[in-house]
Amino acid sequence: MAQSVNITELNLPQLEMLKNQLDQMYVPGKLHGVEHVLIDVGTGYYVEKTAEDAKDFFKRKIDFLTKQMEKIQPALQEKHAMKQAVMEMMSQKIQQLTALGATQATAKA
């Protein structure tokens, strides 16, 4: 996101770009007047800002998301360790049940 805002540093009157269409499809387009840009602020809302304000917005957003990731990383690591322990326990139980079933099958035969 922040890289696309740096287009103002190119000082070109027209700039080739790819315009996001329907979240999956990109079509070529030309950008006229790079002094103001539209920013998707979420839930379908767009805000017109100057390029400098857009850079500040994206810097704040990146900082916020980085802090949020740092907050949840320990919890995710703990959850992953718990998942691994459960998977190991289930694997041991399956092996025990398989061995017990094989023992019972040979005893009946």
Automatic annotation (TrEMBL):
It comes from Ailuropoda melanoleuca. GO terms for cellular component: cytoplasm; prefoldin complex. Belongs to the prefoldin subunit alpha family. This is Prefoldin subunit 5. One of its GO terms (molecular function) is unfolded protein binding. InterPro entries: PFD_alpha_archaea, Prefoldin, Prefoldin_subunit_alpha. GO terms for biological process: protein folding; RNA polymerase I assembly; RNA polymerase II core complex assembly; RNA polymerase III assembly. Pfam families: Prefoldin. Signal peptide: none annotated.
